[in-house]
Specification:
Elements lengths: L1 H16 L6 H20 L1 H28 L7 H20 L1 H41 L6
Helix pairs in contact: 1-2, 2-3, 3-4, 3-5, 4-5
């Protein structure tokens, strides 16, 4: 995350010194703040993860509150219960994340890791199926597959 912020900050600083750019001061401020945030994120990744988890928790709780408020004002044609369930889950997860961001960051990293492993296995299987289909097509037609 820190390196992404660093690249973004450098881009904003470059934009701030380009001639003809409107809002050069704002780009300069954005780039300067981005550099500070990038250094903090790179030097203290644990603190960055906790802060990001806390921010996501607050955002989810607020989003859930908006969904619950929307469910109250929803018309009869809409499915209020879906908004209530979605809003309730968002508030619950948001409160859990904000209440203990350290453990939540570890749990989120674990879940993301597991999800990415599953995603990778699925894509390897898909690649195998596509490769086998292309090979079978070559064998049956006697022609190579266009690339």
């Amino acid at each position: 995350m820190g390196f992404w912020v660093l690249v973004d900050a450098v881009g904003a600083l470059v934009q701030s010194v380009r001639p003809g750019t409107t809002g050069r001061i704002w780009f300069g401020l954005l780039g300067g703040l981005g550099l500070v945030a990038a250094v903090l994120a790179i030097v203290t990744p644990a603190m960055t993860a906790v802060a990001a988890t806390w921010a996501v928790g607050v955002w989810l709780a607020f989003r859930g509150g908006v969904e619950l408020f929307g469910a109250v004002g929803a018309t009869v044609d809409t499915s209020r219960w879906l908004l209530v369930v979605s809003g309730g889950i968002s508030v619950l997860v948001g409160v859990l994340l904000a209440a203990n961001p350290g453990r939540a960051a570890i749990a989120l990293a674990t879940w993301f890791g597991v999800a990415l492993l599953v995603w990778g296995v699925i894509h390897l299987g898909l690649a195998h199926v596509v490769h086998r289909h292309a090979r079978d097509r070559t064998v049956t037609t006697g022609r190579t597959v266009d690339r």
